[in-house]
Amino acid sequence: MDWKKLADQLFPEGHAIVEQNEFLCGSATVEGQALAVIGTTGHTPIGIEIALAQAQAILRTVREFPGMPILMLIDTQGQRLRHRDEMLGINSYMAHLGKCVDLARRQGHPIIGLVYDQALSGGFITSGLMADACHALPDATIRVMGLPAMARITKVPEEVLTELAQSNPVFAPGPENYLRMGGLESIWDGDLAAHLRAALAQPRHGDERAALGLQRGGRRLAQPVIDAVMGGGHDPRA
User: What keywords are annotated for this sequence in UniProt (predicted)?
Assistant: First the structure.
């Protein structure tokens, strides 16, 4: 979806979002409440420039607008794979961005992620997966690693991974599978403004993704392992 059409649907009360070199930044109003909007468009890869721009926008919000909600609009093909970015330490820029998101949360800023087009790899990890809650549109494309790349890394034949993906959401892309795993809190269809209002009103109780994954049957061991480590309980495989 075009980000301008998306913004019109999300913010019927108006917005002041601007695009510069596929980086989105600005503000909007929801039920009279102002919120910061930070994101990307055009399937842009996250290189050092955009990672730093997002981090700066988050820090500026923390400094100038204490407690203001932050909406992260996500459309990226992932971390930029260039020798230049690697030599300049793209991993440190991405880590810095993640730390800034975490700082904002610790300072009382509700943070919502919305995958409105494409979310791949490290560009998703340091945005939507760092938010208090991440949501997606039904036609969004989401994956951390494609099956061909996964096959090369794990040395497991792609045909085997393709077969596993039919029944195991860990191996399969798409918003429905990330919903089952708890990576997404919900899929927004229909009235997007109403979904956003509901997300902003939702009280947060820490990271609930593992619990959601267990509840939805997409990640059956993550929460039991957490419980066993935190409480010294029995082996979750027993």
Answer: Lyase
8 Å CB contact between 18 and 25: yes
Asked whether the predicted pLDDT for residue 33 surpasses 90, the reply is yes
Question: Which pTM value belongs to this model?
Answer: 0.89
Which residues are CB-neighbours of 61 under 8 A, at least 6 positions away?
36, 38, 68, 70, 104, 109
Q: Where are the domains of the chain?
A: 3-231
Buried b (16+ CB within 10 A) or exposed e, 112-147: bbbbbbbbbbbbbbbbbbbbbbbbbbeebbbbbbeb
Q: Would the pLDDT of 126 be above 90?
A: no
CA 123, distance to chain mean position in Å, is: 8
Is the pLDDT assigned to residue 235 strictly greater than 70? no
What pLDDT digit, counting tens, does each position of 173-187 carry?
789 989 999 999 999
Question: In this structure, which amino acid lies at residue 214?
Answer: L
71 three-state secondary structure:
strand
Query: What integer is the mean pLDDT of 11-28?
Result: 97
Predicted confidence (pLDDT) at residue 71 exceeds the cutoff of 60: yes
CA-nearest of 97, 149, 158 to 128 is 97
Q: What is the C-alpha to C-alpha distance for residues 183 and 59, in angstroms, rounded to an integer? A: 25
Domain 3-231, CATH homologous superfamily name and number: 2-enoyl-CoA Hydratase; Chain A, domain 1 (3.90.226.10)
Assess contact for 59 and 96: CB atoms under 8 A: no
**Alpha helix segments (H runs only) across 67-132:** 83-87, 90-106, 121-125
